[in-house]
Amino acid sequence: MKEIQMVDLKSQYLKIKTEIDSSIIDVIEKSEFINGSQVKIFQKQLEDYLDIKHVIPCGNGTDALQIALMALGLKQGDEVITSDFTFIATLEVIALLGLKPILVDVDPNTFNISVEGIKRAVTPKTKAIIPVHLFGQCANMDEILSLAKSHNIVVVEDAAQAFGATYQMEGNRNVHAGAMGDIGCTSFFPSKNLGCYGDGGAVFTNNDTLAALVRSISNHGMKVRYYHDHVGINSRLDTIQAAILSSKLKYLDHYNLDRRKAAEFYDRAFSGCDKIQVPARNSKSTHIFHQYTLIIKSGDRDDLRKHLQSKGIPAMVYYPIPLHEQNAYKNLGYRTGDFPVTEQLCKSVISLPMHTELDIEQLEFITKSVLEFY
């Protein structure tokens, strides 16, 4: 049996090696290393894929979130609501810009931000909501958008873990993650469902004014070279990374289908084990399984992880510490017990290997090893 990887990027690369290598060589031969033609080609491909007016590629997913918030013109002390159960970047950019992070607990089944929690958190100072589409499926966007509209609040989607997922809006209209809010953001970190071979990210919007601001901010605040209209940063998608992403984008839906097939195998295998809760699905969202995350109800998650490691099976805990308990953010004033769902998830979740190259032999070994523990 082939060695089991948490994410098997090399095997995925080898299947499209000729195409990837050719795209990289083309950039080098043209010497278009910064803002080359492949960046514009990839930008247009993304706009078509997402059915959105504007895609602005940038350096990474964290930059995408920061640039989006900068474009909104928020002032120090303005409140931004987001999830307590997610990667630190979402909270990090809010704090870096001098805004006030307002954390909200999550749904115990889907792990996405609680709409009821958002309702309780909204104040006259709330200026933005950042729903994170965690682990591969969308938050309850119709409810979030309706709530935001009623309070004149901007919605910035963090779609880094759900790029390629779709959500059924009112009127049975399917819209891609990142294309529903005022601004959407994503990361092309190598392990993402659409990943490059370095860092990369993008911002999406249908708003012409916001798009112009995002483009300017990501390029030192310039519209015309050497004329700086805004305080900006330097965040560009490297041309080689754009060429790689352009080659991989055509396979994204197939990649996501392979992930769903692996998830269905896991679901069937664990269906009879009452100590394990398989990932719940939001009925309005497709799930593309950036992670396949179990809830271990028996309280022995860490022992299970050690058992799997002894079998050569990697397993990860996303995330072991709630954001409100991180040392860097103790100044927010939250206490243990403020977010009981998140706190319990941090003690009980475990993610199994999930990628496009999992084969039946590996899946059988992983599931048998988990069940063997119980």
Give your account of this protein's structure.
With 374 residues, the protein is an alpha/beta fold. It folds into 2 domains: 241 residues, Aspartate Aminotransferase, domain 2; 122 residues, Aspartate Aminotransferase, domain 1, CATH 3.90.1150. It has 13 helices and 14 strands. The strands form 4 sheets. Strands 1-9-8-5-4-2-3 form a 7-stranded mixed β-sheet, with helices on both faces. Strands 12-13-14 form a 3-stranded antiparallel β-sheet. Strand 6 and strand 7 form a beta hairpin. Helix 2 packs antiparallel against helix 9, helix 4 crosses helix 8 and helix 10 packs parallel to helix 13. The two termini are 23 Å apart.
Output the strand order for the largest sheet. 1-9-8-5-4-2-3
What is the CATH architecture term of the largest domain?
3-Layer(aba) Sandwich
**Rounded mean pLDDT score:** 97
Structural class of the secondary elements? alpha/beta
Counting DSSP H or I runs of 4 or more residues, the number of helices is 13
> Tell me, what's the shape?
globular
Helix and strand arrangement:
Blueprint: H1 9-15, H2 17-30, H3 37-50, E1 54-58, H4 61-71, E2 79-83, H5 89-96, E3 100-104, H6 115-121, E4 126-130, H7 141-151, E5 154-158, E6 166-169, E7 173-176, E8 183-187, E9 201-205, H8 208-217, E10 222-224, E11 227-228, H9 239-249, H10 252-270, E12 276-277, E13 292-296, H11 301-310, H12 340-348, E14 349-352, H13 360-373
Parallel strand pairs: 2-3, 2-4, 4-5, 5-8
Antiparallel strand pairs: 1-9, 6-7, 8-9, 10-11, 12-13, 13-14
Helix pairs in contact: 2-9, 3-9, 4-5, 4-8, 10-13
